[in-house]
């Protein structure tokens, strides 16, 4: 801001032409000159070189013609524009030899896309499965949502065309799926073609991979936000995770994944026993095994009765002493020698 004697502070920066300055400049153009004292309230007139001293009288100023003043103000701007244009041309020339090296590559796709809302998620899944030509890998934890039947129906509508096209489908469920009439009915509907189903003790989250090119994982517990992944490194990692679990899983068509222990321990209780020994609470066990907490606690009670336990602490000790987890130990030793 510029100080002046009459108004104290000029109301704008000196590179602008204020209303007062415009009025005085117009007056000077009409009169041919203006007294120096009159323009003290508008120093922008001299800063913008719109006035110059009258050669015949130092107390007066003469206006610079508008065309001349405009040219004076535009010249440095045009020089800057020309310099920047020259720089942009030089940069383009520098990178031009490299452009042809990637001209034949396909346009990059988004590595991670956030899908919000069931409609958009299902739309992306439908598109990916419609384009799937070779194999689809899926991990499907037990559906504990409000409409599990509807989810199964949507899955049936999505998977049946894949099998009809000869696409291989491999699906992992939790062991609890063996006791789900809805899930077993779903599997029976797709028993033809290249569909394989296995079960495993625990599954963490849902996963769908199509042709090892695109994968879908949940981003929120309510299943209303998902991530569509297309980064090759991420896809390779997820495929390896799937194959690791697939190798440890038991075909759904086979019998119980664990032999019933002498004390009458079921395979579900076997899985619960393992998680109890690891220190998990009831809610975590239920979530990892795909059942509600009430059912989980009922199994824990039956397990405690079978082992003769009177307390939670004693139950952990009796599980360790009973030998019901020895099969896991044998499998781990065998895997380490493979």
UniProtKB/TrEMBL annotation:
User: What GO terms in the biological process aspect are recorded for it?
Assistant: regulation of DNA-templated transcription
- Domain HTH luxR-type as annotated: residue spans: 262-319
Q: Any idea which GO molecular function terms this record carries?
A: DNA binding
UniProt xrefs under PANTHER family? HTH-TYPE TRANSCRIPTIONAL REGULATOR TRMBL2
Q: What is this protein called?
A: HTH luxR-type domain-containing protein
Q: What is the native source organism of this protein?
A: Streptomyces ruber
High-level lineage: Bacteria, Bacillati, Actinomycetota, Actinomycetes, Kitasatosporales
């Amino acid at each position: 801001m510029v100080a002046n004697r009459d108004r104290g502070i000029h109301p704008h920066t000196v590179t602008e032409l204020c209303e007062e300055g415009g009025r005085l400049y117009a007056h000077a153009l009409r009169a041919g000159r203006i007294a120096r004292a009159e323009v003290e309230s508008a120093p922008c007139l001299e800063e913008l070189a719109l006035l110059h001293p009258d050669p015949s009288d130092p107390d007066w100023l003469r206006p610079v013609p508008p065309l001349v003043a405009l040219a004076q103000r535009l010249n440095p701007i045009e020089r800057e524009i020309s310099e920047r244009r020259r720089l942009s041309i030089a940069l383009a020339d520098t990178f031009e030899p490299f452009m042809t090296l990637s001209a034949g590559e396909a346009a990059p796709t988004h590595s991670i896309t956030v899908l919000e809302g069931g409609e958009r998620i299902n739309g992306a899944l439908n598109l990916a499965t419609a384009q799937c030509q070779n194999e689809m890998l899926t991990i499907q934890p037990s559906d504990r949502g409000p409409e599990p039947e509807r989810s199964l129906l949507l899955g049936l509508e999505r998977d049946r065309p894949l099998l009809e096209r000869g696409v291989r489908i491999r699906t992992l469920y939790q062991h609890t799926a063996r006791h789900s009439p809805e899930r077993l009915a779903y599997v029976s509907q797709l028993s033809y073609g290249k569909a394989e189903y296995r079960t495993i003790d625990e599954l963490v989250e849902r996963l769908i991979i199509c042709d090892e090119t695109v994968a879908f994982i949940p981003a929120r517990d309510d299943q209303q936000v998902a991530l569509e992944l297309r980064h090759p490194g991420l896809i390779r990692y997820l495929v390896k995770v799937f194959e690791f679990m697939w190798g440890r899983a038991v075909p759904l068509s086979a019998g119980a994944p664990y032999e019933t222990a002498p004390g009458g321990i079921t395979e579900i209780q076997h899985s619960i026993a393992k998680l109890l020994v690891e220190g998990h609470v009831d809610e975590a066990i239920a979530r990892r095994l795909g059942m509600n907490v009430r059912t989980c606690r009922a199994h824990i009670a039956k397990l405690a009765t079978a082992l003769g336990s009177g307390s939670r602490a004693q139950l952990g000790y009796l599980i360790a002493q009973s030998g019901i987890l020895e099969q896991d130990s044998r499998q781990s030793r065998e895997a380490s020698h493979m």
